[in-house]
């Protein structure tokens, strides 16, 4: 399974405008999540494993996995 590439959602951009709404580490993760960095790269930049925090922010609607969003839909009709 490929690692997700998280990018910010509209909700994240709104939260970044009001940094008091999130804790500092979540805020920093949102700033760094650009849709091109892997979880491993984000973890290295923040010097901690961010997998659980990223998953939690995605579940809340702050982050979106760009790989999952770009995955093609299976055809409904047989070829």
Describe this structure in words.
The chain is an alpha+beta fold and 79 residues long. It contains five helices and three strands; from the N terminus they run E-H-H-E-H-H-E-H. The protein has helices at 10-17, 24-32, 39-46, 51-59, 66-70; strands at 5-8, 34-38, 63-65. It has a three-stranded antiparallel beta sheet. The longest helix has 9 residues, at 24-32. The two termini are 27 Å apart. The mean pLDDT is 87.
How are the elements arranged and paired?
Blueprint: E1 5-8, H1 10-17, H2 24-32, E2 34-38, H3 39-46, H4 51-59, E3 63-65, H5 66-70
The 3D shape can be described as: globular
Into which percent range does the helicity of residues fall? 40-55%
Largest sheet: 3 strands, antiparallel
Give the DSSP E fraction (strand runs of 2 or more residues): 15-25%
Radius of gyration, CA atoms, in whole angstroms = 14 Å
* Contiguous helical run count: 5
Number of strands: 3
Mean pLDDT: 87
What is the ordering of alpha helices and beta strands?
EHHEHHEH
Strand order of the largest sheet: 2-1-3
Structural class by SSE content: alpha+beta
**Amino-to-carboxy terminus distance:** 27 Å
**Uncertain stretches:** none
Based on the model shown, name its key terms:
single chain; 79 residues; alpha+beta; 3-stranded antiparallel sheet; 5 helices; 3 strands; 15% strand; globular
Short account of what is shown:
By secondary structure, the chain is α+β, with helices and mostly antiparallel strands. It contains 5 helices and 3 strands; from the N terminus they run βααβααβα.
